[in-house]
Design goal:
The chain is an alpha/beta fold and 249 residues long. It has six helices and twelve strands.
Length: 249
Amino acid sequence: IRHKTEIANEFIGQVRQEEPFTSYPILSSPSPLHYRLRAQLAIQNGQIGFYQKRSHAIVPIMTCPLLATPLNAALAFLAGDGMAALTGISEVEIQGNDTGELLIVLIGQGFSHDKRRSFFKLATAALSPVSLRGLIVYDRGKRFCVGDNTLTYTVRNKTMRVSDSSFIQTNRPMHNLLVEAVLGWVEGEHNRWLELHAGMGMFTLHLAEQAESLTSIEADSEAVKDARFNLAAAGIKNVQLVPGHTERR
């Protein structure tokens, strides 16, 4: 955290500004282990793991101390009984939420309709009582889904949908802390706000409660869909959601 603070301060010091920035302390996670809700792994020669530093060689693993427990269950399955079924798959992403639900995303070639359904059935049985919500396969530019392609998260008092290709902060214990910090910073400030890189609306839904109007900009089309869904589900009408790149708007 000290190192990150030094980098941030050095960067801010190089920016020419008419008015000084307000620099807030970096928030640290209360959970140094088993906090991650997403993991990207590679598959080579029947082994799954992370890339070795400065290399495309795989370091095979069966468990990771940073991953939440349901993700480690999925990793153990993929590295063990599930590996034989992953012919043609080069990358895997495991996604989870705080209620023990999972999505498995596969990237590769030759995963037919029957193979997708067979793998989903195998994984569902092997991972029980962990709930596998869906299997998403990206094959030569096409996207196939068995089951659901979204997970539900609750941050403070707001429930939101996040699809497999949308981003949410991977450090689960930080969700509430980050939102509460931002709400504390803006409390009593101007009531017309601009939110950049808004994502699927984790901050948007909470900021809208304190704002007269809020303009939120997001480039990723799937995140925009999720944000629109989440805003509508919450009955929020004072947000203008602008699709597009922040630097071009």
